[in-house]
Amino acid sequence: MISSTDGAVTAAPLRTGFRWLQLVMGIVCMAMIANLQYGWTLFVDPIDAAHHWGRAAIQLAFTIFVVTETWLVPIEAWFVDKYGPRIVIMFGGVMIALSWVLNSYADTLTLLYAAAVVGGMGAGAVYGTCVGNALKWFPDRRGLAAGATAAGFGAGAALTIVPIATMIATSGYQHAFLTFGIGQGLVVFVLAFFIQPPRLSIPPKKKQLNLPQTKIDFTPPQVLRSPIFWVMYLVFVMVASGGLMTAAQIGPIAHDYKIANTPVTLAGFQMAALTFAISLDRIFDGFGRPFFGWVSDTIGREHTMFIAFGTAAVMLLTLSAYGQNPMVFVLATAVYFGVFGEIYSLFPATCGDTFGSKFATTNNGMLYTAKGTASLLVPLASVISATYGWKAVFVVAVALNATAALMALFVIKPLRRSFILGKEAESASAATGSAKTETA
Predict the structure, then answer these.
(1) 180 and 54 both lie in a single domain
(2) I need a labelling partner for 120 at 20 to 30 A (CA). Which of 70, 130, 356, 438 fits?
(3) Which residues pair with 272 in a beta bridge?
(4) Does some domain include residue 132?
């Protein structure tokens, strides 16, 4: 790092190998915050057994976490643009550790909810910063870079699901919260010292007809005034709501289906259906994010969205009809999360393509708040399931995903292309008019 004359710290130099190192460190940081969302389902029933607060009340903490995580990202992104990623990620590391320490001592819902706010602030600081940094380092491979970074969040819990479940069973959920919370926070805090943004703006290598990218860097206020942003926001909410509900409720769903502890043998491995499902979900989710990001770099963002959202609808329909079969439950949820997680690579990449790199962290942060909006439906899923059963919840999610798939091709694609070409034409016209005025 190099200090400027005003005392500010400049960004890292542009080196090809260095940007891959930055990507890897961002992925590791994301893996360290993954359990705050994807490991949560393991704690719901043990917390309820200890305090008898009820699933709906406990799951409200999950909603508070996601809302805080997402809706504060634009503010945290502003700090990144002003002070750099290091201090924001350090802050995130401290907060995620504090969150799970508080969870380990929570003996009231108030304290549980307070811990969710603290954890949301920490996770959002890490998530928004790492994804935004990846978009800046890889404008030529936005889908792959955003997908690989998001994969850390999607698959980061895969290696720790079994240890956490084991620790909960042997030592209690409080001990699991305390041990993993401190460990995860410490890793993030240390890596924060080495994460830097690029010094120079890196242009895409070539223009692709199926991958329209703007040449203009739109400011956040300009983005908020663009109709295409709100269409993307709506589709994000539609898809994210089903995935967040399934991630948060997969434990209760398995218990209600009476298959949670049913042994399932697959590829030579045997585990209880719930543990097997969660482990495979994290692996498929982690693989799907960079894979679909890479696919979208090749065939276009909207075509990839159509494939992923359509597949998600089919898997949710399968769970609705045959989810009480342990093998179907494990495989269908795995495939579902394999295509669900791509929203966290496709939407950041699409946002960068549409609105430019300069303000990518803040602009993507604003779009990412759609996840928080979607999380408001998670407690509602518990209410619907209590009245009509989980099939009703799955049917609603199927409709949302199918609609989103159609909107990707027939609404987002033409609107986004029109927006990019129209704004570039306006910019070129303004530049020509300015040149003529100066000549005159």
Answers:
(1) yes
(2) 356
(3) 263
(4) yes
Measured CA to CA in angstroms, residue 121 lies from 72, 127, 140, 175, 188 at distances of 7, 10, 30, 23, 14
Take residue 265 and report the two structure tokens written for it. Answer: 């043998």
Question: What's residue 7's pLDDT?
Answer: 36
**Which of 152, 150, 147, 146 lies closest to 134 in space, CA to CA?**
146
**Cβ atoms of residues 226 and 350 within 8 Å:** no
Q: What is the mean pLDDT of residues 62-69?
A: 87
pLDDT in tens, 379-406: 777 788 888 888 888 888 999 999 999 9
Output the CA–CA distances (angstroms, integers) from residue 222 to 139, 217, 219, 392, 429, in the order listed.
20, 10, 5, 40, 19
pTM assigned to the model? 0.77
**DSSP-assigned beta bridge partners for residue 20:** none
The closest of 18, 77, 6, 353 to 198, measured between CA atoms, is 18
The distance of Cα 367 from the centroid of its chain, to the nearest Å, equals 11
Q: Same structural domain for residues 125 and 162?
A: yes
Mean per-residue pLDDT, 417-432: 79
Q: Position 392: which residue type?
A: A
Q: Are residues 101 and 177 in the same domain?
A: yes
**Residue 172, in any domain of the structure:** yes
Burial of 227 by CB count in 10 Å (0-12 exposed, 13-18 middle, 19+ buried)?
Answer: exposed
CB 317 within 8 A of CB 394: yes
Number of domains present in the structure of the chain: 2
Radius of gyration of the chain (CA): 22
